[in-house]
Amino acid sequence: MNKKKSLIITSVVCILPLIAGVIMLGKLPEMLPVQWANDGTVSNYAPRWFAVFGMPIFFLLMNAFFHYKAEKSDLADQYPPAMKLFLKWSMPVIGAVCTTMTYSGVIGINHLYASITAFVGAIIAAFGSYFGELTESDVIGRIFEVKNNDKKAGIYSKCGMILMIFGIVAVMAVLMGYMTVSIGISVAAIIISLAYSRIA
């Protein structure tokens, strides 16, 4: 996956909480929980505008910064592919989990389970992104035997796309309060991509 496409996809994941927040704006109270104590009780609140607009924009800006660090900084050439993947997907994953925790209590679902579900969806999307780059990584390419094998590379690239799309949809579903749907989408992503990789 090229650098521009990677930035666009991770930025979309960063913006999903903003879209969900705008859709649910009328249902959200003036103050939303943004911090929790060890026992799970809310320890700090923030204004609705901050949770809906401020947090996603912050994660979006940090995402752009981390993409710059992964691709254009002085040390970018020394980073292995796994480190670049971590840098590029850290903000979308953290943003999805944090915002899900904020919205979940308000819409009546357990914030711990909701955040885990959002984390799984975001990780599936991140893994899909990495799966599409198997030909660019010698070690992973050898494991999946895609090096110098255009057919296998194409199959795994499509599997990566399936995982990315389903992972992004799973994150959006849990943000909107549909946790069971999100879990189903995450499971479907894995089953469909595995099935496709075997029958293609």
How would you characterize the overall build of this protein?
The chain has 200 residues and is mainly alpha-helical. The protein has seven helices and two strands; from the N terminus they run αββαααααα. It has helices spanning 3-23, 48-71, 81-107, 111-131, 138-143, 150-175, 179-199, and strands spanning 31-36, 42-47. A two-stranded antiparallel ribbon has the order 1-2. A hairpin with a 5-residue loop joins strand 1 (31-36) and strand 2. Helix 1 packs antiparallel against helix 2 (48-71). The model is unreliable at 135-141 (pLDDT under 50).
Q: What is the makeup of the main sheet?
A: 2 strands, antiparallel
Q: How many DSSP helices?
A: 7
Helix content: over 70%
Output the helix-strand order: HEEHHHHHH
Q: What characteristic shape results from the CA principal axes?
A: globular
- Per DSSP, what share of the residues sits in E-state strands of 2 or more residues? 5-15%
Mean pLDDT: 82
The gyration radius over C-alpha positions equals: 18 Å
The rounded distance between the terminal residues' Cα atoms is: 21 Å
